[in-house]
Design a protein that fits this description.
By secondary structure, the chain is α/β, with parallel strands linked by helices. The protein is built from 4 helices and 8 strands; from the N terminus they run αβαββββαβββα. Helix content is 29%, strand content 29%. Strand 2 and strand 3 form a beta hairpin. Bound molecules: fe (ii) ion (FE2).
Amino acid sequence: MQVDSDTSVIARRKERLRSNRISGWHHHAVRTKDMTATRAFYEGVLQLPLVGTWTEAYDVIKQTPSNYVHCFFEVGDGSALGFFQFEEGMRDAPMPMPRDPYEHHVSLGVDTMETVDYFRKRIEEAGAPVEIVDHGYCYSCYTQDPNGMIVEISTIVPNGIEILEQSAQTAEADLENWLAGVREPNNKWRGKTKI
Ligand SMILES: [Fe+2]
């Protein structure tokens, strides 16, 4: 099946996306103890501009006086990664971020595999750990930010729309099967993309 010639696949995808009331990420936020290092990573290495610095003197969640800065680093769709840094002594140290990507990670999307490699090189040059992973339906590199948060940079592979739309057709049945105990892997795409 060629996606470019299969207008029904594209139309189905467009209609599904269009009908979703949730239009995208607004932001994802975590605490940091070092906004300078965080900025150096997100703005300096990943080239996400700092577009918001909100300085606050009141903890709106705990309803107590506090002092913190809240910074937003902008992604190309207008969403952002947000970070809080509290004044020393205002709170305990931030909770450690999970070091296992199966526990938590965020993934930033880019257009092409070349762009994944572009950022892999920049991360390498910055001295941060980086690892490429071929998921079959997407191609990614993984690193850690200065807070220990695992950050993935992903792109769909050249025939990714076709793969994702095939998966969308069977996603419910595949889940039901797995929950019922079927353990047959269904990712036949890993290793198939020329890297
Ligand atoms: Fe991921």
